[in-house]
């Protein structure tokens, strides 16, 4: 018997719903595109480029529109012999300082084998090397720093690059920086001198509304999904869910993709509303897991205390009992424990995040008290914790207790 069998009744090109797919066509962004083109016009005219700062929530098309326009720009300036345009793009997500971004840029520009190491050089040396590489290319160079907010306040490069010409670090090369940020606050926290230069042209992409998302989904579904494999109203439903939550095309596309996978696994002929519902709850759970990773140490320990109670099949569990568990965990991790009151605050935060649920119990003379239990599957909670807490043996013990109690 075959173990693997091809399933292609739902998707025609599933990759077209994925992270790395670049659409040939951009929907619903005409005004933004016009403004963006206007900011890029000096490149075509042979002048020094504007520095551009583009911001908007995740999934609103910042990267897609930038890639699309810069491709067109490169095609179109090829007609002018006196414009020699190069584009260098770096995603800063995993780079959290100017230094690392500068090293990444240098290494992108150097031939394989000539890369420099990401530690050890003084910052100014790395900047000098970068100028050397830029000069070697010459002409007009647009440097795209996507998700640039992740460099935080270590933003010297954003001060340096736009001034490289004025400071005689660049001679024959015209450099423009396009900074893209998911976080508008990033702009405000920049040094005012950086703001002035980097944000020469500022573009904002607003969230999409439901009809816009539906159009984006429709044009993508045509490429990605087999003919007739989407039930009437499903795209509308995905668009409505994403519009209500984030206005992100990424979220809408993720919902559709996962709904399609669920349909496939259930051997359905087409994607139905139920599949979207299932996809929605699964994506929600993933988001909660991400939330767990962002907790503070004490938030995590408080959560681990509840997880430990759950493993013993003792939840819902009262704050006082959770607190005992928590102090024991603090002891074994060598962390000073907080007072019960503060732990109670952490527990209510966890409730707000949708990680715990709480019950208020009335107990006559002794007043009311709360008890808590996990509001997420035990397995995903303990998985998430073992990723973020260095308490291997405690977590292993909790797993063993859970399996003894058939808690899964
Ligand atoms: N206007 C649009 N037309 C077509 N596809 C879009 C549009 N906006 C976003 N997308 C798609 O949605 C997803 C998220 O967009 P992206 O550009 O990565 O968002 P951002 O960079 O703002 O986080 C990508 O798959 C992208 O191709
Ligand atoms: Mg992006």
UniProtKB/TrEMBL annotation:
<feature type="domain" description="AAA+ ATPase">
    <location>
        <begin position="48"/>
        <end position="203"/>
    </location>
</feature>
<feature type="binding site">
    <location>
        <position position="220"/>
    </location>
    <ligand>
        <name>ATP</name>
    </ligand>
</feature>
<dbReference type="InterPro" id="IPR027417">
    <property type="entry name" value="P-loop_NTPase"/>
</dbReference>
<dbReference type="InterPro" id="IPR036390">
    <property type="entry name" value="WH_DNA-bd_sf"/>
</dbReference>
<keyword id="KW-0235">DNA replication</keyword>
<dbReference type="GO" id="GO:0005524">
    <property type="term" value="F:ATP binding"/>
</dbReference>
<dbReference type="Pfam" id="PF09079">
    <property type="entry name" value="WHD_Cdc6"/>
</dbReference>
<keyword id="KW-0067">ATP-binding</keyword>
<dbReference type="InterPro" id="IPR014277">
    <property type="entry name" value="Orc1/Cdc6_arc"/>
</dbReference>
<dbReference type="Pfam" id="PF22703">
    <property type="entry name" value="Cdc6_lid"/>
</dbReference>
<comment type="function">
    <text>Involved in regulation of DNA replication.</text>
</comment>
<feature type="domain" description="Cdc6 C-terminal">
    <location>
        <begin position="303"/>
        <end position="385"/>
    </location>
</feature>
<protein>
    <recommendedName>
        <fullName>ORC1-type DNA replication protein</fullName>
    </recommendedName>
</protein>
<dbReference type="GO" id="GO:0006260">
    <property type="term" value="P:DNA replication"/>
</dbReference>
<dbReference type="Pfam" id="PF13401">
    <property type="entry name" value="AAA_22"/>
</dbReference>
<dbReference type="InterPro" id="IPR055237">
    <property type="entry name" value="Cdc6_lid"/>
</dbReference>
<keyword id="KW-0547">Nucleotide-binding</keyword>
<dbReference type="GO" id="GO:0016887">
    <property type="term" value="F:ATP hydrolysis activity"/>
</dbReference>
<keyword id="KW-0132">Cell division</keyword>
<feature type="binding site">
    <location>
        <position position="208"/>
    </location>
    <ligand>
        <name>ATP</name>
    </ligand>
</feature>
<dbReference type="InterPro" id="IPR036388">
    <property type="entry name" value="WH-like_DNA-bd_sf"/>
</dbReference>
<dbReference type="InterPro" id="IPR015163">
    <property type="entry name" value="Cdc6_C"/>
</dbReference>
<keyword id="KW-0614">Plasmid</keyword>
<feature type="binding site">
    <location>
        <begin position="60"/>
        <end position="64"/>
    </location>
    <ligand>
        <name>ATP</name>
    </ligand>
</feature>
<dbReference type="InterPro" id="IPR050311">
    <property type="entry name" value="ORC1/CDC6"/>
</dbReference>
<dbReference type="InterPro" id="IPR003593">
    <property type="entry name" value="AAA+_ATPase"/>
</dbReference>
<comment type="similarity">
    <text>Belongs to the CDC6/cdc18 family.</text>
</comment>
<dbReference type="InterPro" id="IPR049945">
    <property type="entry name" value="AAA_22"/>
</dbReference>
<keyword id="KW-0131">Cell cycle</keyword>
<dbReference type="GO" id="GO:0051301">
    <property type="term" value="P:cell division"/>
</dbReference>
């Amino acid at each position: 018997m075959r173990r693997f069998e091809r399933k292609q009744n739902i998707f025609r090109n599933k990759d077209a719903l994925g992270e790395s797919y670049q659409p040939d066509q951009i929907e619903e962004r005409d005004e933004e595109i016009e403004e963006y083109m206007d900011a890029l016009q000096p490149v075509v005219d042979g002048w020094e480029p504007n520095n551009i700062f583009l911001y908007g929530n995740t999934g609103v098309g910042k990267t897609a529109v930038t890639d699309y326009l810069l491709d067109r720009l490169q095609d179109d300036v090829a007609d002018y012999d006196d414009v020699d345009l190069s584009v260098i793009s770096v995603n800063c997500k995993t780079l959290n300082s100017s230094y690392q971004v500068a090293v990444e840029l240098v290494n992108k520009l150097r031939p394989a084998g000539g890369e420099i190491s990401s530690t050890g050089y003084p910052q100014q040396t790395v900047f000098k090397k970068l100028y050397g590489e830029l000069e070697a290319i010459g002409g007009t160079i647009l440097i795209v720093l996507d998700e640039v907010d992740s460099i935080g306040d270590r933003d010297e490069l954003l001060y340096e690059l736009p001034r490289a010409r004025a400071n005689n670090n660049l001679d024959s090369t015209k450099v423009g920086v396009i900074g893209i940020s998911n976080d508008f606050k990033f702009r405000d926290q920049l040094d005012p001198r950086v703001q002035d230069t980097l944000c020469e042209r500022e573009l904002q992409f607003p969230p999409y509304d439901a009809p816009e998302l539906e159009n984006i989904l429709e044009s993508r579904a045509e490429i990605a999904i087999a003919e007739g494999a989407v039930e009437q109203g499903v795209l509308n439903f995905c668009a409505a869910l994403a519009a209500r939550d984030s206005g992100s095309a990424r979220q809408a596309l993720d919902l559709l993709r996962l709904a399609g996978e669920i349909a496939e696994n259930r051997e359905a002929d087409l994607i139905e509303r139920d599949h979207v519902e299932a996809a929605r709850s699964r994506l929600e759970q993933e988001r909660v897991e991400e939330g767990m990773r962002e907790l503070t140490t004490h938030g995590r320990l408080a959560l681990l205390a509840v997880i430990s109670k759950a493993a013993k099949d003792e939840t819902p569990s009262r704050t006082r009992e959770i607190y005992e568990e928590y102090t024991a965990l603090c002891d074994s991790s060598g962390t000073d424990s907080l007072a019960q009151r503060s732990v109670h605050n952490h527990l209510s935060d966890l409730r707000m995040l949708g990680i715990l649920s709480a019950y208020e119990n009335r107990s006559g003379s002794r007043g009311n008290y709360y008890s808590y239990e996990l509001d997420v599957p035990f397995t995903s909670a303990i998985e998430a914790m073992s990723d973020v807490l260095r308490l291997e043996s405690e977590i292993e013990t909790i797993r063993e207790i859970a399996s003894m109690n058939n808690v899964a």
